[in-house]
């Protein structure tokens, strides 16, 4: 065996490269005895279901009906021992893993009877001695057994994903009361409920988990002073993800709370004002990434209020690196007119450290050259800039302004912007009065021109080819809004694409 394979780091790098091919990992395990142990450890390290473990039992003890595994006989102690051996290699029972996931061929399920048999043989703590992450949904029909879920808790557990939708208030109260003592090493906690209700005692536990850095709450009404105060008690919290329920309290009358360590914020809501309310009641110093998704179209006034709240809540404008705002109904409500002039977005120019700005389908952008020309000075290190629209508007951005923007932003790699390239392009001139193209920019790889009006008189292909020699992707919208009205510039854009030889 080559000397390099005696390095654990090299072996792990090879196995990680093969993670989407279980067969290849098995082949590595069979190559030689020295590679067998690390390959098997890697193969079993993460799963989203207990089915692969049960499938280690002899086929004559199993029966699969409607994708559900049942026992047809009683496995011997030695046969159960094989299950235990492989279970000892499992480190993460998570929501998804590359080995068992297949969109076209759903994974197997394990019947409740089989799971009861398994845990009669080996309690969870014995079966999974190296477990550091657990998702209760892996127990499938037994996931509502909170006592069984509790048996997976241990001081070594670092991540817990809990679907608490079927638990009573008393059950949740008891479970979370024990959490700080039985799983004090938790660094990541995710809780999902159905009705937005959760005992106050549950939320109070966050401050009693000293290592907690990532918290996700789905369906929990946290827009109250008490709930926000409880979340704030997690002093080391770096990542917070909140998916608001249909109905929220929006309790007012209290001062903004400081989330001093927060770096990543993800908010999912039916209505954008719920996210705005949350931002209005917190302050941050180190927030670097914020992603907002909502499922009902927001008005210009609501979008303006959100951006103003973001600016007000952030006490260190240089720390914000990425902002992403997504209207999840952008296609269904493409006919809804939501005019968004440049002034709506101008407060974002104060965030001078931005690397990525991504607005996806939130309205009818009506940007102007003045705003576009201000971007390079405000965001000198921008790498990704997207004003993606499914609701086209009157375009006030010229092709020349777009080229100037991308040329001056020397780190810009991906740009999505609608502009007007239907007229002759005003190219900069040198001192001798001759045309002098913008300085070449070699970072730009992707350009999406949205609903841009394009004509051959703009010399689009000539300018793009000379100013952006590294460009490899040119895209555009085929239709306006819905799929009823075709983009009339498509033929001209196809010609530009062919002239750039990007195929």
UniProtKB/TrEMBL annotation:
InterPro entries for the chain: LRR_dom_sf
Gene3D superfamilies with a match to the protein in the record: Ribonuclease Inhibitor
Domain of life: Eukaryota
Protein name: F-box domain-containing protein
Organism, scientific name: Suillus luteus UH-Slu-Lm8-n1
Lineage: Eukaryota, Fungi, Dikarya, Basidiomycota, Agaricomycotina
